[in-house]
């Protein structure tokens, strides 16, 4: 793997992508789901690699691992197509997350540590583990959900669930909400008191993870931040801005800002709220998207994996109030009381 870390391309990559696409699947690379991150037609290996470079973050190892997993998915879909039943969009980042989750469970280590361990595995081991993930997809989904839960000591009846007043339903802008989020996210515009409110949120949790949850540099430790920085400190604002700027898709960046605003509102209305884990925005927003889609399409609740592309595009087109409401729903879904 180390020999391929200089942005080099495995020529068989484009063949693997084609093998997947001709079987009526599509591929998503990177952590944030956007139309641009989806591969839905065959292309040259340089075109595929350009997409990987664009959406797979700053860790070169992640790009290499993405290539390897695509190649193994191509081999597996030819040899055992039944493993892919019910999967329309193959999200490489989610397969990496499931692989990491299983390693963490087996070894009793954190997901960060499991990710580092994953990087040390041989290609043969990764292919075998990927096959296991596909074979036990539903079970591993459930394990991952259990690992994502947020423990809260307070009784649920004491929590005041509130949607931030700033999200009062405004008129739909010209071009729709997705276009508005793309424009706002492109300039990273944040509302008044955004950074002090995020600082205040850190008083209620172990920390925040903004962006790729497996990248340790995206982790904000509450104890460190609160002891070293003040709410209005410029360095704190710059640190948050830096993490948001690392998110490639502007509409997803904007949704993260809206999610932080809603979490801050919940924290302000519940001064005794204490969450024992890190709040992972990728996880929270992912569940918000799912809950929004399943609420509108209950008849397809068990087919969500097939609908993820449409679910994300639909979510980007919701108003800020609807987005905040489902962030609240996702937070309630993830919390475990007592």
Can you count the helices?
Answer: 15
Unreliable residue stretches:
3-9
Report the radius of gyration as a whole number of Å.
Answer: 20 Å
**Helix/strand order, N-terminal first:** HEEHHEHHHHEHHEEHHHEHHHE
Tell me the helix content.
55-70%
Count of folded domains: 2
Strand tally: 8
Percent of residues in beta strands? 5-15%
Report mean pLDDT, rounded to a whole number. Answer: 90
Shape: globular
Look at the helices and sheets and give the structural class.
mainly alpha
Q: Span from first to last CA?
A: 44 Å
Main beta sheet: strand number and arrangement? 3 strands, mixed
Structure notes:
This protein has helices spanning 12-21, 45-55, 60-79, 92-107, 111-120, 123-135, 137-148, 176-187, 194-201, 222-228, 234-245, 250-269, 281-296, 304-316, 320-334; strands spanning 26-28, 38-39, 89-91, 150-152, 205-209, 219-221, 275-280, 335-337. The chain has 338 residues and is mainly α. The protein has two domains: 2-148, no CATH class; 151-337, no CATH class. It has a three-stranded mixed beta sheet, with helices on both faces. Strands 6-5-7 form a three-stranded mixed beta sheet. Helix 12 (250-269) packs across helix 15 (320-334). The longest helix has 20 residues, at 60-79. The radius of gyration is 20 Å and the shape is globular. The relative contact order is 0.13. The model is unreliable at 3-9 (pLDDT under 50).
């Amino acid at each position: 793997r180390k020999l391929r870390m200089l942005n080099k391309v495995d020529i068989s990559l484009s063949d693997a992508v084609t093998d997947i696409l001709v079987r009526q699947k599509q591929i998503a690379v990177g952590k944030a789901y956007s139309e641009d991150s989806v591969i839905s037609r065959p292309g040259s290996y340089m075109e595929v690699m350009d997409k990987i470079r664009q959406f797979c973050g700053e860790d070169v190892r992640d790009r290499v691992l993405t290539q390897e997993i695509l190649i193994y998915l191509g081999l597996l879909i030819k040899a055992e197509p039944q493993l892919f039943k019910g999967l329309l969009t193959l999200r490489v980042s989610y397969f990496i997350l499931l692989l990491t989750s299983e390693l963490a469970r087996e070894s009793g280590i954190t997901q960060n540590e499991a990710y580092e361990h994953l990087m040390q595995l041989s290609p043969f081991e990764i292919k075998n583990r990927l096959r296991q993930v596909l074979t036990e997809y539903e079970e591993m989904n459930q394990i991952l959900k259990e690992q994502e839960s947020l423990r809260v000591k307070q009784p649920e009846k004491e929590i005041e669930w509130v949607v931030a007043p700033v999200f009062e339903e405004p008129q739909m802008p010209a071009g729709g909400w997705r276009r508005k989020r793309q424009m706002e996210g492109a300039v990273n515009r944040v509302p008044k008191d955004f950074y002090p409110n995020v600082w205040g949120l850190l008083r209620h949790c172990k920390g925040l993870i903004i962006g790729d949850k497996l990248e340790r540099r995206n982790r904000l430790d509450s104890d460190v931040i609160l002891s070293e920085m003040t709410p209005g400190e410029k360095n704190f604002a710059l640190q948050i801005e830096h993490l948001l700027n690392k998110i490639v898709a502007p509409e997803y960046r904007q949704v993260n800002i809206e999610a932080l605003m809603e979490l801050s509102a919940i924290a302000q209305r519940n001064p005794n709220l204490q969450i024992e884990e890190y709040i992972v925005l990728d996880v929270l927003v992912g569940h918000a998207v799912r809950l929004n889609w399943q609420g509108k399409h209950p008849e397809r609740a068990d087919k969500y994996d097939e609908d993820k592309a449409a679910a994300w595009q639909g979510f980007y087109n919701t108003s800020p109030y609807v987005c905040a409401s489902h962030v609240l729903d996702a937070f309630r879904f993830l919390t475990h009381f007592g």
